[in-house]
Write a structure and sequence with these properties.
There is one protein chain. By secondary structure, the protein is an all-alpha fold. The chain has one helix and no strands. The chain has one helix spanning about 5-70. The radius of gyration is 33 Å and the shape is rod-shaped.
Length: about 80
């Protein structure tokens, strides 16, 4: 009966080590995926902000041009 104890102990040890390794690896992969998603979200937000600022700048330029037209002539 003592001869069967060693292989059984080895099997349980390997199972525990395998599960621990799987847990650590999955945690690391999840962290990498979360960081990548945050990086992509930040990039997209920056792009949207840039486009909004460009569009508002174009609108402001148009309004300044209209105001200049009204200021330049007495009759529009």
């Amino acid at each position: 009966m003592k001869k069967n104890t060693k292989p059984l102990l080895l099997a349980w040890t390997m199972l525990v080590l395998g599960l621990a390794g799987t847990g650590v690896t999955s945690f690391y992969v999840k962290q990498c995926i979360d960081e990548d998603a945050l990086r992509q979200f930040s990039f997209t937000c920056d792009q949207v902000t840039l486009k909004i600022r460009e569009r508002l700048g174009a609108y402001a330029l148009t309004l300044r041009g209209g105001a200049a037209l009204f200021n330049a002539s007495a009759y529009v």
